[in-house]
Specification:
By secondary structure, this protein is an alpha/beta fold. The protein has two domains: 206 residues, Rossmann fold (3-Layer(aba) Sandwich), CATH 3.40.50.300; 126 residues, Zinc Finger, Delta Prime, domain 3 (Up-down Bundle). It is built from 16 helices and five strands. It has a five-stranded parallel beta sheet with strand order 2-3-4-1-5, with helices on both faces. Helix 6 runs parallel beside helix 7, helix 12 crosses helix 16 and helix 13 crosses helix 14. It is elongated, with a radius of gyration of 27 Å. The structure holds zinc ion. Zinc ion binds next to helix 3.
Amino acid sequence: MLFKEIIGQQEVKQKLLGLVRDDRTPHALMLFGPEGTGKLTLAVAMAQYLSCKDRKEDDSCGVCPSCIKFEKLVHPDLHFVVPVLKTGSMTAPPVSDDYAAVWRETLLADFYLTESQWYEALGAENKQGIINVKESENIIRKLGFKPYESDYRMVVIWLPEKMNQSAANKLLKLIEEPPQKTLILMVSEHTDRILPTILSRTQLLHVPPVSETDLREGLLQQEQTDPQLVEDAVLRANGSVSIALQTLRQDEIEAHHFELFTELMRLCYARDIVKINGWVERVAGIGRERQKQVIDYSLRLLRENFMLHMENDTLNYMSAKEANFSNKFSPFIHEGNVHALAEAFTLAGNHIEANGNPRIILMDLSIGVIRLLMQKAPTAG
Ligand SMILES: [Zn+2]
């Protein structure tokens, strides 16, 4: 991870660079602040810079053997300690090393990983991980070795507030008497839950929320997407890159559902069986989870269109794009067909869930929609 790849945080980056350049790297450093601001990725960038064989003024070189290993998170002198929990048939209390591969993969996929996303990656949503005493013993052992390739042995402790009492006590001992040339980099979101004696022996560096300007610029550079979606994500993010990225991904998925739904409605209205068949083939290929999402999305938009048809404007929850489409489409959704349409989509969703053949289910659905869209609205009175 290069500093220049991290969104915003100029001030923090300058401080970290300064520590290394002026040879003032402490034994224990803690980056703390709210979730989603890039603390973990800043910690990894700091370790990479410290270890880089051809350090530049403002960043690691990115091409030396050390940097290459950092890019894959496989440098032998870089260790991670993260909160973990028992999964599957595990009996012994787990440690980070048990999940080293999934950690690397998850972090490389998203450096703005949040704690709950991590537990999700472990297949344990809604559970809480901890850092146990065995983990602290592992750190002490690892930092006791001579460095393999770097001048430093480095350990990144993500969320030290997740340490239990005995783990924290062991860590405190280590911080009090650190081996030569070690760097303990902690990344915390709740310093109030950390032993004051650890905090007082640690250099603390606050990482603030990312400014809207930095966030907008960073997202536009990194994510190839609609500037309108970026703007929406920035406004909802409150300075958290994690939330901005989640919003952006969700919005992109919604935008795709919108395209699929409106396309199907147009094709059904035109009774274009050849193109409908192409649509069915494409949707059959996106997987059952996504197919169910498309069905759910369709049901929502059908309901919104019916509401719009009934001129019950206050009940509408639509984006500008959806409203634009619906203004033209809603006349076709009325008392005469809305229930049957909803039933057809619900049934298709149930059949997909029950592992039916998506090609047959979606083609049946489309033919049903053609027939239902042809029905005229019942005349009032
Ligand atoms: Zn390098």
